[in-house]
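As noted in the main text, all predictions were made from sequence alone. Below is one such record, for LacI family DNA-binding transcriptional regulator.
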Amino acid sequence: MQQRKLATIEDVAAMAGVSIATVSRAVNEPTKVADATRRRVNEAIARTGYTTNAMARSLRMRRSNMILILAPDVGDPNFSNILVGLETEASKRGYGLLIGNTQNDPSREADYLRFISSNQADGLILFTGHLPFGFRQGPGTMRLPPMVAVNEPVPGGEMPFVGVDNFEGARVAAEHLLSQGHRRIAFIGRARGREINRLREAGYRAALEGAGIAPDPRLVIEGDGTTESGRAATELMFVRDALPSAFLCVNDATAMGVIIALNARRYDLPRQFSVMGFDDISFASFLTPSLTTMKQPRHRMGEAAMELLLALLAGEKPKSPEVLLRAELIVRNSVARHGGS
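Prediction:
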C-alpha cells in the first residue's frame, strides 16, 4: 500500500488561498492574522492533516500550546462563565485548555501536575486560592510555569490575580441596604480562611461604619458559602433572638438558604426581611422573591486572566500584577424599604 504523502505548508497555503508566510503567522502568531483568514487557514490545516506537523513543531519548541486550569469544583455556578472567557481569549491566541477538577483533593492536584512535568501545559490558571499541592520549592524540584490566580487570590500577593473588587462590591451592597433605611444588617458568611469572605465582610463593615453604625457582632455569622450554611445561619439568628431587618450574604447560594429559611417560617419577603446576595448566578432571578445582588463580570474576568497569562508566557511584564473588576448592583425584588408596607 502506498504511503500517504505528508501535507506541507505549501499545501495549506494553496488550499486557503494565502501565502506561506500567512500560514506561518496563523499557526505561530494567530493574533496578527485577521479572523476570517485565520479560519480559512485552520480549515485548510484540518483538511490536509498538516496539524500533525504543527504539533511536532510545538514539541520541538518544548511548547504544548495548552493551558492547565485547576478548579476545586467545576460545578460552581461562577466557573462556567469565567471558563468561556478563558477559552475565548485562549482560542484567539492558538491555545487550548486542560481542565483539572480537583474537588479539593490534594492527591488530585498532585496528579494534575504531571501535565506540567511532561511539558503538556505551558501555563497554569488557578481557581484554588493556593499553589498546587504536590509542588515543593527548592533546588532540584520541578519548576512551575507562569501562573495567574482567578476569582480567589493566592495569599502572599506575589502571584498575578484577576478577580472582582470584593471589598468595594460588598460596600456598595451594604450601602444599598442602608439607602433603603436598614440599620440592623446581618452579614452571613464570615470565614477567616477565605480571602473573598474576609474582603466582603470588610466592605460590609466599612459601609456601616461610614453611616455611623457600629456592627453588632451578633449579626455576623460564619458560613461556608453553601445554601445550607445560609439556612443554618438564619435559624441561629432566631435562636439568639437578635434579628436584623436585612441580610447581606457572602454569595447567592447563601442568600438562597436565607430565603428558604424565612419562607419556611412564612415571612412576607421583602416586606418583613430584605435579602441581598453577591455573584448574580443563573438562578438568582428565579428565586421568590427574585434576588437583588452584585453581578460579577465573569466573562471579562476569564478574558483578562488569559490575556495576563499569555503576556507572561510571551516574556512580557504585566502592567499590573492585580486586575480588579467592578461588580454591578442588580436590583430585583428581595430588598425593600425598611418599614414599608
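Residues 77-92 form the longest helix (16 residues). Confidence is low (pLDDT under 50) at residues 54-61. These features were considered when defining construct boundaries for the mutagenesis experiments described in Section 2.9.
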